[in-house]
Write a structure and sequence with these properties.
Helix content of chain A: 25-40%
CATH class of the largest domain in chain A: Mainly Alpha
CATH topology of the largest domain in chain A: Cytochrome Bc1 Complex, Chain D, domain 2
Number of domains of chain B: 1
Oligomer: heterodimer
CATH topology of chain B: Methanol Dehydrogenase, Chain A
Strand order of the largest sheet of chain B: 1-32-33-34-35
Number of strands of chain B: 38
Helix content of chain B: under 10%
Structural class of chain A: alpha+beta
CATH class of chain B: Mainly Beta
CATH superfamily of the largest domain in chain A: Cytochrome c-like domain
Chain lengths: 265, 537
């Protein structure tokens, strides 16, 4: 059967999750992973490859999702918490729930813990202070991106981006912004029934209609059948910085973005 | 009338009400009525409408000229946050539907107001791969029949919801559960089992409708010494899955029950279960009286992509190759459409109806000709269709007027990984997994109207990707369906033209049905966590 086992989110499970999370949180010092043998870790690695590599990379080095080799698990400070994160996901992030056996989850947790051999932070070459200057002053990135509540709201909030993205992923995003643009950040360009062209941020789209935030910050809704043209723009409005910044500046900017995690809540 | 005669009358009435024959007559749903369910389109007497599972209604009050005037007549809010996959029955003005996890509700079909609710208690720990669903009930006489998530079959009194009998089919602690609506065949209740991700050994059961006593059981994996047990390596048959988690069909003339079977286990690693793994991913034809296997056809031998053959068998009598034949039509999860002779199981025709990259085609016996290197791997193998399949459990429809099969299809892909799992009773036993590397928006779902004689697509109607709605067609050439993005719509069954739609505010994961109450035709769909019923002014 296994119908959409990974992607499916069951609302009823939320209550269970909250209850379980509460119970587990209370036992965080008491509950330890019972599956930590070498065999368990090997089994956990296999499961990890089946479900986790799309975000965390082939060996947990991180990509679209956090680097798991650092030994820093903000949402999983105990074995019990890591169990909950794997089973129930993290609301508001890309981390989904997973339908696995209890043993399977513990084995993945054991494998993830075993990855923590490289120290507390990834090696980044640049200077985060210089990177902050590039971000806020030189390139004025905060016109679109917010950090700590300051900045634009029409592009991803970068306040805690260092928790979520690896340095390699951050650099790739600067050099080739179109490499990975989630649907949440796609745009629309359409011509309505009066012949007017409208462009904007694609907030929602279904089979028959679209809703967007237009260039004048108006929420607009359209029936597709009323449109003369409709184009979905799956690229990023951000330009590539490959030729705009030097290698050193790119390193500095990555170092700054990667540092945006120290005061994570 | 004296007090003495009053007492006598009360006593006689009590005896009469307690007598099973009287009770059955009071409801009036007989085996005969079930056999000819299509002749009383004002009712919806079983999960897929009739034994042929065509999901075709002869009702014509709602037609092309007035369907655009449909309006909501009533809404019943379910007390659940789980996905809703139920398809109600309507019997003489009363609607019976199920609610997650294993509850039953009786409503006035004209107003949506409840008569009674039965709430089934469940153990705390259940082994469920895919949610706490139930898809419906069956009816005979004064009894409704309900399969439960703790693998029990229960008979409820239609008038009150009182439990008449309650029997255990299997051990829930070992991963067995029931999500499908049973069907009633003559005096027996036919009920399948779920648990293909838990190393169960699948079966299909028949129970005496009156007593709940099990009459026969057909194991979908042959036991030691039985024919085709050698299609499993070693002891792998003992945990081989092949569950029966979607309702099947029945041909009264042939007295054959047809039922689809699910994936072999573990799902994604076939190394320890070398062989064809019969009768997983198959349709089995069973003698309705004895449960004996008459024939089988396996769609996906040695499946490693979780492509259960748990679609509803569509039984159609039509001219094929120059003569009238009793056919079975099957849009399979593996992306091939099959036409079988349902008297013999002979393969007549097969062709892809959705995107697929795993087989070059089918040989003359209908066996897939596999493309090499499409099995799950450590590094991941990209394959169409996805684990969700080109089709799945949601019901297709067939209209004898248009002679077209209507099915919600999905042209999607997944990357499949191989893994290892040790069998532990009640724990997942899948040995691998799958990931989708592209956004869902890159793929598409659509209704395809297929000519079963050629597997040619006559028309398509686009839907948001991964729509899981069933369909119903009518004698006024309407086709009703829903979508994952929360719409309910009516199409012209002849050409797919949209005639009406409405935002119903929640995902549709169920099949619509239609009925009459107080002389008016209604159409009902489960959407989000509500039952929504439409009608004309």
């Amino acid at each position: 059967m296994m119908l959409g086992r990974i992607q499916r989110f069951l609302p009823t499970a939320l209550c269970v999750f909250l209850a379980a999370a509460g119970a587990l949180a209370g036992q965080q010092t008491a509950v330890e992973n019972p599956y930590t043998s070498a065999k368990d870790i090997a089994a956990g690695e296999q499961t990890f490859r089946s479900y986790c590599t799309i975000c965390h990379g082939r060996t947990g080095e991180g990509a679209k999702g956090p680097d798991l080799t650092l030994g820093i698990f903000r949402n999983a400070t105990s074995d019990a918490a890591m169990f909950s994160v794997i089973r129930y996901g993290i609301p508001g992030t890309d981390m989904p729930r997973h339908y696995m056996s209890d043993a399977g989850i513990w084995q993945v947790a054991a494998y993830v813990r075993s990855l923590s051999a490289r120290g507390s932070t990834a090696e980044v070459a640049g200077d985060p202070v210089a990177g902050a200057r590039i971000f806020h002053e030189q390139e004025n990135c905060s016109q679109c991106h917010a950090v700590d509540g300051r900045g634009g709201r029409r592009a991803p909030n970068l306040t805690e981006v260092g928790w979520r993205r690896s340095p390699d992923y951050l650099r790739a995003s600067l050099v080739d912004p179109n490499a990975d643009v989630p649907p949440k950040w796609w745009s629309l360009r359409l011509i309505d029934s009066d012949g007017a062209t409208v462009t904007g941020w694609r907030l929602n789209e279904d089979t028959y209609s679209v809703r967007l935030l237009d260039a004048n910050d108006n929420l607009r809704a359209f029936e597709k059948r009323d449109l003369r043209e409709l184009e979905r723009i799956e690229t990023s409005p951000m330009m590539s910085y490959e030729d705009m910044l030097s290698e050193q500046e790119l390193d500095d900017l990555v170092a700054y973005l990667y540092s945006l995690r120290s005061n994570g809540r | 009338m004296t007090c003495k005669s009053c007492g006598l009358l009360v006593s006689l009435l009590a005896v009469a009400l307690a007598h099973p024959v009287f009770a059955q007559q009071s409801s009036g749903i007989t085996s005969e009525r079930l056999t000819h369910a299509e002749d009383e389109p004002e009712n919806w007497l079983m999960y897929n409408g009739q034994y042929s599972s065509q999901r075709y209604s002869r009702l014509v009050q709602i037609d092309k000229s007035n369907v655009a005037e449909l309006q909501v007549k009533w809404i019943y809010q379910l007390r659940t946050l789980s996905d809703v996959e139920t398809s109600p029955l309507v019997v003489d003005g009363i609607m019976y539907l199920t609610q997650s996890p294993s509850n039953v509700i009786a409503l006035d079909a004209a107003t949506g107001r409840p008569f009674w609710t039965y709430e089934h208690p469940l153990p705390e720990k259940l082994s469920l791969c895919c949610g706490r669903q139930n898809r419906g009930v069956a009816i005979l006489g004064d009894k409704l029949f309900l399969g439960t998530l703790d693998a029990r079959l229960i008979a409820l009194e239609t008038k009150t919801g009182a439990v008449i009998w309650n029997v255990k089919s299997a051990e829930a602690s070992e991963g067995y559960s029931k999500t499908a609506a049973p069907i009633v065949v003559k005096d027996k209740v036919i009920s399948g089992i779920a648990g293909g991700e838990y190393g169960v050994r699948g079966f299909l059961d028949a129970y005496d409708a009156e007593t709940g006593e099990r009459v026969w059981r057909f194991y979908t994996i042959p036991g030691e010494g039985e024919k085709n047990n050698d299609s499993w390596e070693g002891d792998s048959w003992k945990t081989g899955g092949a569950p029966t988690w979607v309702t099947g069909s029945y041909d009264p003339e042939l007295n054959l029950i047809y039922w689809g079977t699910g994936n072999p286990g573990p799902d994604w690693n076939g190394e320890a279960r070398k062989g064809d793994n019969l009768y997983s991913d198959s349709v089995v034809a069973l003698d309705a009286d004895t449960g004996e296997l008459q024939w089988y056809f396996q769609f996906t031998p040695h499946d490693v992509h979780d492509w259960d053959a748990t679609q509803t068998p569509l039984l159609v009598d039509m001219e094929f190759d120059g003569r009238m034949r009793k056919l079975m039509l099957w849009p399979n999860r593996n992306a091939f459409f099959y036409v079988l002779d349902r008297e013999t199981g002979e393969f007549l025709l097969g062709s892809p109806f959705a995107m697929q990259t795993w087989a070059k085609g089918l040989d003359e016996r209908g066996r897939p000709i596999r493309i090499p290197n499409m099995f799950p791997s450590l590094q991941g193998t990209l394959v169409y269709p996805s684990v969700n399949g080109a089709a799945n459990w949601w019901s297709a429809s067939y209209s004898p007027r248009t002679e077209l099969v209507y099915i919600v299809t999905y042209d999607g892909a997944d990357t499949f990984f191989i893994g290892e799992d040790d069998y532990v009773p009640g724990e997942l036993f899948v040995a691998g997994g799958s990931q989708r590397f592209e956004p869902q928006e890159k793929y598409a779902s659509m209704i395809r109207a297929l000519d079963p004689r050629t597997v040619e697509t006559k028309w398509e109607y686009p839907l948001q990707a991964k729509t899981q709605s069933g369909l119903v067609s009518t004698a006024s050439d309407l086709l009703f369906g829903g979508s994952v993005d929360g719409y309910f719509y009516a199409l012209d069954a002849t050409d797919g033209k949209e005639l009406w739609r409405m935002s119903v505010g929640g995902t549709v994961k169920a099949a619509p049905m239609t009925y009459m109450a107080s002389g008016k035709q209604y159409v009902t769909i489960a959407a989000g966590n509500a039952i929504v019923t439409f009608g004309l002014e």
